[in-house]
Amino acid sequence: MASSATYNTFIEELTSIMKARGLGNLDPHDFGTPLWAMVYGFASLLIGKPANLDNSSQALRGRKADAT
Predict the structure, then answer these.
(1) Cβ of 42: how many Cβ atoms within 10 Å?
(2) Is 57 helix (H, G, I), strand (E, B) or coil?
(3) Among residues of the chain, what percentage have pLDDT more than 70?
(4) 39-62: average pLDDT
(5) DSSP state of 52
(6) Residues 20-37, buried b or exposed e (16+ Cβ, 10 A)?
(7) What is d(CA 4, CA 50) in angstroms, rounded to the nearest whole number?
(8) Number of other CB atoms surrounding residue 48 within 10 Å
(9) Could you tell me if 39 and 68 are in contact, meaning their C-beta atoms sit under 8 angstroms apart?
């Protein structure tokens, strides 16, 4: 399944980042799963393009910053 492969790639990249920052002893899934859910949710909203969602770049950056 494409979404599983994409998630696995995301976790691999996150693992590399965590190791480089001295966090290799932590489970990347503990951090990656909530981040993935946020990204997936934003993507689903943007694909559906609800009329009340401001999908400008500035608005998206603000929502991502607030969420993380």
Answers:
(1) 16
(2) helix
(3) 82
(4) 74
(5) T
(6) eeeeeeeebeebbeeebe
(7) 26
(8) 8
(9) no
Catalogue the long-range contacts made by 5-10 (C-beta closer than 8 Å, 24 or more residues apart). 7/36, 10/36
Element (H, E) at 12: helix 2-20
Q: Which tens digit of pLDDT belongs to each residue from 14-47?
A: 999 999 999 999 999 998 988 888 888 877 877 7
Q: What pLDDT score was predicted for residue 47?
A: 78
- State the pLDDT at residue 1: 56
Q: How far is CA 65 from the centre of its chain?
A: 12
